[in-house]
Amino acid sequence: MTAATDSLPPGFLADLAEYVAIPSDSRSAPMATMRAAAEWLAARLDWAGGRVEETDGFPVVRADWLGAPGAPTVLVYGHYDVQPTGDLTEWHTAPFELVVDGDVLRGRGVTDDKGPVLLVLEMARTMLAERGALPLNVRFLLEGEEEIGSPHLPAYVRAHAAELAADLVISADGAMWRPTEPSISIASKGLVALDVVVTGAAEDLHSGRYGGTVANPVHALATVLASLHTADGAVAVAGFTDGVDKLPPQRRAEIDAVDFDDEEYRAAVGAPELFGEAGYSTLARLWERPTLEVNGITAGGKYTVIPHRAVGHVSCRLVGRQDPDRVVEAISAHVAALDLPGVRVEVRADPGRVPAYRIEPDHPAVRAAREALAEVYPGQEVLLAVIAGTLPATTLFESALGAKTLFFSFATADEKHHAPNEFLRIARIGEGMRAWAALWDRLATGGTR
Amino acid sequence: MTAATDSLPPGFLADLAEYVAIPSDSRSAPMATMRAAAEWLAARLDWAGGRVEETDGFPVVRADWLGAPGAPTVLVYGHYDVQPTGDLTEWHTAPFELVVDGDVLRGRGVTDDKGPVLLVLEMARTMLAERGALPLNVRFLLEGEEEIGSPHLPAYVRAHAAELAADLVISADGAMWRPTEPSISIASKGLVALDVVVTGAAEDLHSGRYGGTVANPVHALATVLASLHTADGAVAVAGFTDGVDKLPPQRRAEIDAVDFDDEEYRAAVGAPELFGEAGYSTLARLWERPTLEVNGITAGGKYTVIPHRAVGHVSCRLVGRQDPDRVVEAISAHVAALDLPGVRVEVRADPGRVPAYRIEPDHPAVRAAREALAEVYPGQEVLLAVIAGTLPATTLFESALGAKTLFFSFATADEKHHAPNEFLRIARIGEGMRAWAALWDRLATGGTR
């Protein structure tokens, strides 16, 4: 009988166990713990001058192997921080102890992003040892604040743009869409968030002693929020979809060709039925359409008052060329046009705004990635998927370094990222190492732009 | 120079100071404190056999003076418990220390309801001492749980209905509408509360990874809540106003004759403008029209999820013959008829339901009260006002004792009931004693039914 771990390179499990044991939760860990994780990682990059560099927050790990003159340069991106454990009683194993459990490894960060980064380091070290050289120039940028929104990464990248110069960024962060086939994410959605703030009287008023005399901000907010969508689920804000192209028939056909079972998906999320914009399949809505979701409402409570304030928390996921500023303007104009009596209505947009990101399906890096995956997963179709979430680093790298980002992670989206009992499929580690090697070889000869 | 307190009977201030010093906050005080307040009050009723009687909660104070055979019997209702102090830093004086401050007395409970009750006891004791008899039979029922919704009063009153039998209840609780003229409240609104509960998926979903595929319960709730009113502020639920009579021209004229300044009211509540059902003046809406207010919403927050649950907290103030059960049914039917896709919508009504209460303006007790007030406030019009809040004891006394309740309180609605810096106008104490005496004399001769 062969154990799943037999496929791993000698020492890999012990290394990953050491790395997982460092509780580098960027929400709660002290600087010393974060630095320990960074230094651990930098030591694994000694062959490329691995080092810890300061930022205004937790440090970054940098390394450069530039021994392939004339060949392209890639920048490998990933992160060493992890999510909080959450409720420890929900964990079946100790979160910071790497556990082999049949075909999977368990532990906080094992799939997001410690395993997927470590496999690249192991592959590169082995390749260099075996061949005496890598096929292209490689830089590494591994940050410690991804799980808290990378607050200090933009300033760091802009300040060090020349040193980080690369033809292509390859992200070891991200995830394959699902376990059943290999996939490459060619897009991620943008994000803009805002509050709709409705105010009425100066204070909360007794609903009996004042009821019927003043407008209730909660009613006004409900009217605003109910007006944001049509009955069939489309966003009803004029101008919201500016910059969203009609779904090309070819892309629609590609999506329709994906083996996707609505009923299975519905059962998994536990909703009474699926719902969304008419005229699009579930997967087309998820991957290709912008959304506007009310994430919550803060208003009064279960006591008999007319609250003086009601706030709707809204966020929009953007696609195509939607301009986040323009989206805020469109929503503001829509709300103002309602002209609701008896209240003040204000739209307050959050400063952080991220446009959608996309790498063309025929980009040389995507072609190389598909070929690499086809080599590792023979006979399986490589899906072109979308990360319906938002990855701000992609647009940062595009604007600061002028480089596209290729997502090439061997995590899988179902591996309980951010949740208790996070895991990583052991087979993906060997597959990932072979695929990264095949990718680099192809990029070295086929180009990166 | 005459101090405002010169008008008070000897010993009254000292008594009230003792009474206010007992911190009988029914939300937080231990049984011993509540019992101390009850016993203090019972001792002031020794001339009528004052005693403390057990209930399933805090005790009630009972007393009976039945030395007027053939004359009517009235039941005086009030309470000895007070509201919590709230934030002590907002108090300008110590809450449980009676302070004379110019024309007012300050302290927790001084106007709600310790002062207004004590003045009746003082008046009755004095009258009995002076005349040797009261003009009618008087029972007292003073409870200790009014500020927490009188949870044990209904069972107590029903179990002791025979002993509490009276021709009329006179409530020393309540308040005159405003300080500028005497008024009698002839009605209070009913109350029914319910939650609109919308559920979608089994758990909160990442708004990126699932956005566009499932209905958002917050959107559905907004649609439900926005549908409950017309654009002009009327309740849009079919059947809601069943049992609400058209406002009689005479009552409309009475209300229109009240000196009421919309702009002054607007400025006091701090709303940008007043708003409500078209076709009614502000005061007519406040006093005569039913309301449906969304008191709050519990749903998600400011994080990028599609919440799996959204709850709207609704309460309705009822008038006329509106049946609380029927109101719940009407709202439930309205919500069900929306038939929103992708979510489950449920209406969960609270068990406590109170119909509206009204005593006819030409009821002998109201006539007697108007005459008594006219005697104490010569030359001033006595307004017939409405308590737009809800007083469940009124419907309890009507159903359990078959007796109407006359509100005859010498508190005023602006005296910071339930808030820091509660106060009572000193002049109202002497006025109240004279008015109660005049009322009893009139009821003794003019009848109570």
UniProtKB/TrEMBL annotation, chains A, B:
InterPro entries: Bact_exopeptidase_dim_dom, Cyt/Met_Dipeptidase, Peptidase_M20, Peptidase_M20_dimer. Residues 187-339 form the Peptidase M20 dimerisation domain. Gene3D superfamilies: 3.30.70.360, Zn peptidases. One of its GO terms (biological process) is proteolysis. GO terms for molecular function: metal ion binding; peptidase activity. It comes from the Bacteria. Keywords: Hydrolase, Metal-binding, Protease. The keyword Protease applies. PANTHER family: BETA-ALA-HIS DIPEPTIDASE, SUCCINYL-DIAMINOPIMELATE DESUCCINYLASE. This is Peptidase M20. It comes from Modestobacter italicus (strain DSM 44449 / CECT 9708 / BC 501).
